[in-house]
């Protein structure tokens, strides 16, 4: 019990950890992982999908799926106790009081049919022999500490009555109410908007300072890392690549993979100048979309998904629409290709209003759409060739000609034409997104709509796909409407930017103006909330004040 | 042939290390391969093949005319002339069993074809064209509320007992079940991004249904089809046994059991032989269906 301030206690120590498939595979999933977490310290495990970061964190929680994954070597010491060897009963005790976990998606981590207060209360009931009055007081205290408003009402609320940020606060309250020694957070802010993310990160930091909790933060987002990490553990394909202090990894990474990973993070400095001379490809005038019907005995409860939206996209220009979830950016994009019918206003494509035309087939020859999730936007039962040729054949092209064109376009997006006979599941996410882009490009549209087209991709793949958009724009002079929630991505690729909030355009202008000198308070909030605004990842240094 | 606009690759072709050759689970080809790897499935498949062969080759299997009455040879036991003996009219039971397979299989197959085709039609109609949903599905709900056997008896009573009437009578109550299933699958698929992507590519309604919607219904339909097949054979036997099915002069397993009922104490084999055939057929077809379902929907397999 000697408490020496100069030598903080090691809370978690992972030594030579190896995790393998249960009928052992060729190579363990996670190999020779070593790292330590001190009291009051935040360690970020960073890696792309498939790097083994989640498997590592599940091993620490003792939550590896039984019968498919198992720890086959090494030790995980929690306050000196090896949790790979403890009994199931002891593990349950540890899981509550020793180590707690916060998941990515708060909605699925909470029971939808139980009041949130009772769910937190249940944790106490199972682990503390307290009276119900004591427990209730403790739960309300905890709700106060995670800065929820009106805690009495929140206590009685169901998860669906709370916002995403509030739900994540509840999950954090539940994780921390037993004052665990170690908090494991697996992408806890990935599903949240940037402004909410900022608040949650601050909350975790604050609670950690009060309790001296050790935090392991699993994430793919270097912005978040640079905000919160004391030390960083970089993983790649099941191996530990590099560990080091936050400053060291971000400013002077030793390993090539880390260098590549850090420099793939787009910086917030706008790169593309405005384009003003070329003709307008898309001109959106007073576009509105309302949901909910009036009359017929229904209450006039109208939702304005988009309200009087105006913007233009010129030939060879990439215009970004940025905004948080629910801002109406996707609604606008869907109205432009008439997947959704606009309620009011005009959508001029090459000067022709398509807002009310019945000839949708003509519209869709000119405008193409790329979806967010490359795993679901390709029909799993159709070969790449079939998917790529579909549009051309629909417009009457002969099969042989369509096949040749499809092969050509596939090479344009950086895939060999030899893969035409394969099915989507044989490709990685980034490759699928290339295929989806090829499927849109093969139609030779005048306007390409990319709806969060790089949001589901790892940073290094994201950088490649952004390069691809850039190359395609240069070669074909196509106009692109680029929908994103990520300011860094927008800064990387857009010539001009439209900021939307609650269905309305609050600010529009060249990328340089909007990002460097934002006028509207909402834009300013967004930029301030973007993680690590002051760091230029590509050059491993703080960004110069603009 | 190639237009030289976009020929040169803009990005160096990537090597494709993540490429796998693992077959996707749930595809029809993978399923069939897995199905034949289990013993239960192999045995049921052999039984089904044998019964189908018996039906097709009935005239060449040493049978006699199954409707030839021989008053002098009533209720005989097994002999070389009559392998399974004769019935109360002196007809050869072995030949009647063999020819009866034709009726049962025809009813099974016919029911599957009718109910699946119409079920797909209504399922697509209600699942994809939402305006039709309210009207058609209420009609289907009404149809499902009527007990199948009673509906069949009523239909046969109205329009007379022929094979066609019996087929329709058995198939009609199955239609809502198929339609609901197809509708559910299509409702799930129609909002998938790949369907919206096809819309953006200008894919028309019929191409959309054919290329993107119907393929996902194939697997569940395959499973449902086997159950309908087995249940139709059962229903036909029941109808014939109740005297509301296939005309009594036609040799069918149900008719044979109905006629054998009178002589149950005297000569139980008259019910036994067709009864065993019905059970064998239904059992093995159902088992095939179970194996198919376990393969196509593994979550169900673990629950049962």
TrEMBL record, chain A:
InterPro entries in the record: AAA+_ATPase (IPR003593), ABC_Ni/Peptide_Import (IPR050388), ABC_transporter-like_ATP-bd (IPR003439), ABC_transporter-like_CS (IPR017871), Oligopep_ABC_C (IPR013563), P-loop_NTPase (IPR027417)
Compartments where found: Cell inner membrane
Pfam families named among the record's database cross-references: ABC_tran (PF00005), oligo_HPY (PF08352)
CDD domains: ABC_NikE_OppD_transporters (cd03257)
GO cellular component: plasma membrane
Molecular function GO terms recorded: ATP binding; ATP hydrolysis activity
Entry keywords, A to Z: ATP-binding, Cell inner membrane, Cell membrane, Membrane, Nucleotide-binding, Translocase, Transport
Coiled coil (UniProt feature): none
Chain ranges of the ABC transporter domain: 12-262, 282-527
Membrane-protein topology: Peripheral membrane protein
GO annotation, biological process: peptide transport; transmembrane transport
Family under the similarity heading: Belongs to the ABC transporter superfamily.
Name used for this protein in its record: ABC transporter ATP-binding protein
From TrEMBL, chain B:
Annotated family: Belongs to the binding-protein-dependent transport system permease family.
Highest taxon, organism lineage: Bacteria
Membrane topology value: Multi-pass membrane protein
InterPro entries in the cross-refs: BP-dependent_transpt_permease (IPR050366), MetI-like (IPR000515), MetI-like_sf (IPR035906), OppC_N (IPR025966)
Protein name in the entry: ABC transporter permease
GO terms (BP aspect): transmembrane transport
A Pfam entry, by short name: BPD_transp_1
Cell compartment(s), UniProt: Cell membrane
GO cellular component: plasma membrane
Transmembrane segment boundaries: 39-61, 103-129, 149-173, 271-292
Occurrences of domain ABC transmembrane type-1 (ranges): 101-289
PROSITE patterns: ABC_TM1
Lineage start: Bacteria, Pseudomonadati, Pseudomonadota, Alphaproteobacteria, Rhodobacterales
Cross-referenced PANTHER family: ABC TRANSPORTER PERMEASE PROTEIN, OLIGOPEPTIDE TRANSPORT SYSTEM PERMEASE PROTEIN APPC
UniProt keyword list: Cell membrane, Membrane, Transmembrane, Transmembrane helix, Transport
Main location: membrane
